[in-house]
């Protein structure tokens, strides 16, 4: 059970504890099950005043379930969550009143509302039953001044960058006088300087006595920001310890129950160009981009967020058009903005937005795996379920896709297994060129290693690989060549002997 916790301060910002850190929230013996899955099994977890507790684990370890329990979205089957000597009810509004604010991976801002309106959303200041515009502006201005004073209160949320939107959500938590801030993968869409700024805000919140739950797959960031690291595996608590007493190798072993080896990319025979891009330009996105990718070669597009890498991938696959230039596949002209032609010519794209562009969450695993294979499973317009089952079973074995059943909704799988389902879809078409946009984004270290092995295996079998990645160790590890983009142009090219994190960042930041 939690110790007594002081009630939420009447002051605008959380106040520091002058003595030992107070327990702000205590999760005791919590279990939670869903049909066919035990998500959490007898888990304990604590949040202390002025401390960042990083919650880590593989996809499917139970992290999302735990933070949804703390946010009041789910109720536990067993155990309790105590905040301020009161047991938390399964109600988001109750959690808010208890001082818990959650910033989810997908931002919860109303696009058509202003920054000020989003900060006070759901807690409108009123006088005589009418919203007070002056009080609204005063409250939101005070909160925003603590995290992003340069932002305009009148700016519509849809005009904010991902980093700005995140800071607005932090300001909302302060306006609500929250004492516990839960952040789910907060750095996924941020650049290096934006991450630095966010971490500065978190450090300031710690000094003011706020407790922070930080959920991330990026262990480098975890060790930068965390005071304590708590590890879940298969729904159970593996351990919790001060970050200073741990290292990355130990945490990885706690997460996966084994040592995870680095993916080895051996030198191999490289063939003729499969993809040739010549002078590709698109207004405000790309400027005369030219390069090639050869059979069996792994070429990585590196660069900061906004450099134009995803726009380039979308133009190649036909998702987006372009103003000038040409694209050739095995020497043949690829029609502009024609995805069907791209697929027929052997292209495949694993998009960055896995949930929004890669999967249909309401459909089963089998339906998602065969989504681009109707010419194989339904050549006469009627689906052959034996063919569908055979393709899915082959994919499950080849890629080690972990799922309760091929009929399960794909949205119920972990992030790594969702990614494997998308890869399986395209591998069944035997692509000549595979474009992967941030393929390890939001997946755990074990799944990253498995995806890495798949990429290397395809290259060894002659598939041309165009990889987009923002993770420098991944770029350096995988690439035969690195093309660095900045402001829609290729500003540097590094071969195997030249590639290094320092060299990549030099081009990415100075061009």
Descriptive report:
By secondary structure, this protein is α/β, with parallel strands linked by helices. 33% of the residues lie in helices and 25% in strands. The strands form 5 sheets. It has a 6-stranded mixed beta sheet, with helices on both faces. A hairpin with a 2-residue loop joins strand 21 and strand 22. The longest helix is centred in the middle third of the chain and has 16 residues. The radius of gyration is 24 Å and the shape is globular.
Helix count?
A: 18
Largest sheet: 6 strands, mixed
Question: What's the average pLDDT?
Answer: 87
Helicity range of the residues?
A: 25-40%
Task: Enumerate the strands of the largest sheet in spatial order, edge to edge or round the barrel.
Answer: 6-9-10-3-11-12
In short:
With 511 residues, the chain is an alpha/beta fold.
List the helices and strands and how they pair.
Elements: E1 23-34, E2 37-48, E3 52-56, H1 63-70, E4 78-83, E5 86-87, H2 92-97, E6 100-103, H3 115-119, E7 126-127, E8 130-131, H4 133-145, H5 162-175, E9 180-184, H6 192-207, E10 211-215, H7 219-225, E11 228-233, E12 236-242, H8 248-256, E13 273-282, E14 286-294, E15 298-302, H9 309-317, E16 324-329, E17 332-333, H10 339-344, E18 347-350, H11 354-358, H12 365-369, H13 374-377, H14 385-399, H15 415-427, E19 433-437, H16 445-460, E20 464-468, H17 472-478, E21 481-486, E22 489-495, H18 501-510
Parallel strand pairs: 3-10, 3-11, 6-9, 9-10, 15-20, 15-21, 18-19, 19-20
Antiparallel strand pairs: 1-2, 1-4, 4-5, 7-8, 11-12, 13-14, 13-16, 16-17, 21-22
